[in-house]
Amino acid sequence: MSRRESPPPAPQRGEVEREERPERAEPLSDAEREIIQDTWGLVYKNCEDVGVSVLIRFFVNFPSAKQYFSQFQDMEDPEEMERSSQLRHHARRVMNAINTVVENLHDPEKVSSVLALVGKAHAIKYKVEPMYFKILSGVMLEVLSEEFPEFFPAEVQMVWAKLMGAVYWHVTGAYTEVGWLQVSSSAV
């Protein structure tokens, strides 16, 4: 870039950063699908407790995410969050959605359909900023690796990160499809 040229303007609210969104999610290999399904089976036995741990960490570390949850947006204390029936209910919904994805990894159309429904609901009905899906994915990976260290060594974490990238790709695709104007991976 010459001294006279200025850098391209940063995207403004309402613009889509299309160049950051890959054309498609990186597909999982058969071995990666097997790793995910094997490790998920161990996690899902405790799905509600794990889901609650994920949401509590998410809300404690990213309190702005609570703005979308009138039932527990004023809760500050992690112990109060843990006792909340509404938070437990949402934790089960999150974990069940992931379970549906994991159970259907052999069927990309089903995965895409499920995640499109999740994305559209969060975009249209709840108006959740899409960056929170990326943040939640990272929190989930942290919690899984801490609560199940023997089942989530670095190589398994890499496979799960690939899956979470695909989840984010599908969800943000649904946001774009319904006309959500800001889908940026740089927002995190």
From TrEMBL:
GO molecular function: heme binding; iron ion binding; nitrite reductase activity; oxygen binding; oxygen carrier activity; superoxide dismutase activity
Localization in the cell: Cytoplasm; Nucleus
InterPro entries assigned: Globin (IPR000971), Globin-like_sf (IPR009050), Globin/Proto (IPR012292), Globin_lamprey/hagfish (IPR013314)
Principal cellular location given in the protein's record: cytoplasm
Reaction(s) the record says it catalyses: Fe(II)-heme b-[protein] + nitric oxide + O2 = Fe(III)-heme b-[protein] + nitrate; 2 superoxide + 2 H(+) = H2O2 + O2; Fe(III)-heme b-[protein] + nitric oxide + H2O = Fe(II)-heme b-[protein] + nitrite + 2 H(+); H2O2 + AH2 = A + 2 H2O
Primary enzyme class: oxidoreductase
Stretches assigned to the Globin domain: 27-176
GO cellular component, one term: nucleus
UniProt xrefs under SUPFAM superfamilies: Globin-like (SSF46458)
Protein name: superoxide dismutase
The species this protein was found in: Scophthalmus maximus
Taxonomic placement: Eukaryota, Metazoa, Chordata, Craniata, Vertebrata
